[in-house]
Amino acid sequence: MEKIPILKMGDFLLVTVQIDLYDRLALNLEADLVNMINKHQAKGVLIDISAVNIVDSFMGRILSNIAQMSKILDALTVVVGMQPAVAITLIELGLPMTGVRTALNVEKGMELLKRNRILDSEEEETTSTDEDDSAE
Fold first, then answer.
1. How far apart are alpha carbons 96 and 98 in whole angstroms?
2. Does any domain span residue 43?
3. Region annotation Disordered: residue ranges (predicted)?
4. pLDDT for the residue 135
5. Sign, CA torsion 111/10/70/91
6. Within a domain: residue 63?
7. Residue 10's closest CA among 31, 41, 32, 33?
8. Confidence band, pLDDT 50/70/90 cuts, at residue 128
9. Residue 56 banded pLDDT, cuts 50, 70, 90
10. Rounded to an integer, what distance in angstroms lies between the CA atom of residue 112 and that of residue 44?
11. Going by DSSP bridges, is the β-strand pair 101-103/6-9 parallel, antiparallel, or unpaired?
12. What CATH number did the domain enclosing 90 receive?
């Protein structure tokens, strides 16, 4: 059975989809990603779909599901490399893609994940400092 590789890069997971996903493969990717986020406590997921030419409503829902599940597990999802025809199809299908952040390419997607990670770290420090001040 085919599997989409999931690579760990620091606090992030990188998925490069090189083939058009059929339903079973998409469902396996969804389950594998959620498990990997939990296992590695990943703070971000970057999904590169630049090689994908066709996205149907099922695949659109899978991407949205991955983003929502990732958010619950405290990880941001960024989809990169979306072809114009894929973007048009998603809009025509009326898929909201809730929670899915996008970037033009892997480099910009990684910048977005890193920037989000820095903001989260600063927020945690501020919260920690506020809690320390209120304990006094």
1. 5
2. yes
3. 117-136
4. 58
5. positive
6. yes
7. 41
8. low
9. confident
10. 10
11. unpaired
12. 3.30.750.24
